[in-house]
User: Fold this.
Amino acid sequence: MILYNASQSKGLRNFTRFLTNSNSTTYTDADVDASLNMYYHDIVNQILESMDGWDFQGEIATANLVASQQEYVLPTDILKIKRIEITYDGTTWNKARFFDISEDPDPTDSTTITRNFSTNDPYVDLHDNSVFLFPVPTANVSAGIKIWYEKEATELSSATSEPVFAEAYHKILCYGAAKDYFEKYADVEGNTNKRNLQQQNYNRMLEDLKTFYNTKNQDRDYEIKPYFVDYDYNPNSN
Assistant:
């Protein structure tokens, strides 16, 4: 007998219904999937907040620089930017620094921008789904901008969809979906206690998951160094 993957959407739906003693009529695929995906996005964000140097959903995007073009559209699946580098000559790469447009008194004046910003020390400002470059490129450069980022999770949308985080923690989504079910039918006797149980299961597994991702990159050593204070120093002495 061949069993389907319990971590795929079909398996997650079935385990959710096992926890809630429901079926496809009382807890439809559409409702289960909506709840699973809501918790899926939350879990991805929780992982990003807790992880160490491991880039759980890491991606690198590149785009061509176009002469006189300041605005560049960000990837559609971007969730969190980690780093941006720019090469204005196609050879030398420089890390871009982030700033807010309010810090520039003449943000639309190209002459002022050229005078205030250097290609050796570029700045970027984020607006909606775009990044604005300072200074503005004066020449076309193939793949002249590189963006390291964490991407948004692709929702579970088919019976074979599977969450991207560690498989041992996939059922946390079912605990969340089961909690939602019992909240919906809280007027049924005993459902409040069942809801609280699933909340406890969710919280417990969430802490385990965060601990796992917080220590996944074990080859990196973190060290806290004390700040040296010279108590014998007298600023008034000669």
About this structure: The two ends are 88 Å apart (CA to CA).
